[in-house]
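Translate structure to sequence.
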């Protein structure tokens, strides 16, 4: 089993970055919910949801592939990153232009908000490419330092901008600029550490590498769709106000994920290295420990927030969101299975089992669409929350079974080889 001493320290640093990012996000949201009508805020949530989905697709799964490649072959960082950027940069530009062209035709009134929200989302998505290099190389502290750039800008400028009477669009511009600054600083750090990065979008090897990443695209895209489509469907099948009610509650669910995402960030490259070395017994013990601890911690968090939900929403978002307490309670019931699913998902990727993991994500999305179509028209945001609980439970069960059966089969194979030797 992996020693948890150094990874525990790295998890602490990664958690610090996650906390700073989420605190900044909460500060921004607290400002917006007090200065912006729920209907306009619903438009912003809709725009970010759409842009995030398209941005995920434009990444073609290369972020996770790059992380795993760097972890398993640390001497080839520049080559791997060059291949990914050769594909990511042109696709990100196409994604931005496509989103805004469609918006200009289909919903001109939303055009300015979409232009700024999509810039914010796509620039943030590009940052994860450089972040994957730092995580794969186990430079967790350096990654955390670069991650702090955007939160510092947001906390420093956005509350002051709102107090001075800046418009909604001007505040969104600050958001987009903060992600642009974070991306620029991280790119500078990576290029300085690993030297020149060969970028050539015409290079066939880059596109071959990207195409090999397609299972990660499916997993990542479907995972994002499972979360982001809830807001889109509430907006479409109910109302912008209900979309704001759901998204504000979901933002707090995302806060819970910051406690488990650092575990994935630190342990994914470590587990990928164990898998590359065929250390199946060690990996099985590590996986079991991670899943058990994750389930226990998630249960404690779920119970605590579920009890406090009626007071949490109006305290954080303001009195207009007092009725959203039940939505938050339902969403937080999903925390244990959500956390287990996140850990099991990166374990499946470390094992090279991204294709069956993608199948599970697809089945979960089908359940998501069906339940939302059935429940949202009558229950609004609460219907989407019940859907999240059901789909995350089904998905986590699928992934845990996948990881367990794979590890058992490979551990038995490893034992057989030792006996034969």
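Result:
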């Amino acid at each position: 089993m992996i020693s948890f001493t150094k990874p525990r320290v790295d998890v602490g640093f990664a958690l610090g970055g996650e906390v700073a990012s989420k605190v900044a996000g909460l500060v921004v949201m607290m400002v917006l919910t007090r200065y912006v009508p729920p209907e306009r805020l619903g438009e912003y949530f809709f725009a970010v949801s759409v842009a995030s989905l398209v941005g995920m697709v434009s990444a073609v799964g290369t972020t996770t592939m790059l992380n795993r490649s760097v972890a398993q072959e640390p001497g080839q960082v520049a080559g791997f990153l060059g291949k990914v950027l050769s594909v990511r940069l042109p696709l990100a530009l196409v994604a931005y232009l496509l989103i805004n062209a469609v918006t200009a035709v289909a919903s001109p009134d939303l055009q300015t908000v979409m232009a700024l929200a999509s810039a914010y989302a796509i620039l943030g998505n590009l940052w994860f490419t450089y972040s994957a290099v730092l995580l794969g190389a186990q430079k967790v502290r350096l990654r955390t330092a670069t991650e702090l750039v955007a939160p510092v800008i947001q906390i420093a400028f956005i509350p002051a901008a709102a107090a001075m009477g800046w418009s909604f669009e001007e505040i969104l511009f600050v958001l987009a600029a903060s992600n642009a600054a974070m991306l620029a600083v991280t790119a500078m750090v990576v290029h300085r550490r690993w030297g020149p990065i060969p970028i050539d979008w015409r290079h066939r090897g880059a596109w071959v590498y990207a195409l090999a990443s397609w299972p990660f695209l499916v997993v990542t895209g479907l995972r994002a769709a499972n979360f982001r489509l809830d807001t889109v469907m509430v907006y479409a099948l109910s109302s912008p106000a209900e979309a704001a009610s759901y998204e504000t509650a979901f933002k707090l669910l995302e806060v819970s994920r910051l406690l488990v995402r650092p575990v994935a960030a630190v342990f994914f490259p470590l587990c990928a290295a164990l898998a590359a070395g065929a250390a199946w017994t060690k990996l099985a013990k590590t996986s079991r420990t991670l899943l058990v601890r994750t389930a226990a911690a998630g249960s404690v968090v779920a119970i605590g927030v579920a009890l406090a939900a009626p007071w949490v929403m109006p305290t954080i978002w303001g009195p207009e969101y007092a009725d959203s307490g039940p939505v938050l309670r339902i969403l937080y019931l999903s925390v244990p299975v959500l956390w287990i699913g996140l850990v099991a998902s990166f374990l499946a990727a470390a094992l090279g089992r991204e294709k069956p993991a993608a199948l599970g994500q697809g089945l979960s999305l089908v359940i998501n669409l069906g339940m939302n179509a059935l429940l949202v028209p009558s229950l609004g945001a609460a219907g989407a929350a019940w859907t999240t609980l059901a789909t995350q439970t089904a998905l986590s069960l699928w992934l845990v079974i996948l990881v367990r059966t794979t590890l058992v089969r490979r551990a038995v194979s490893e034992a057989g080889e030792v006996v034969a030797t």
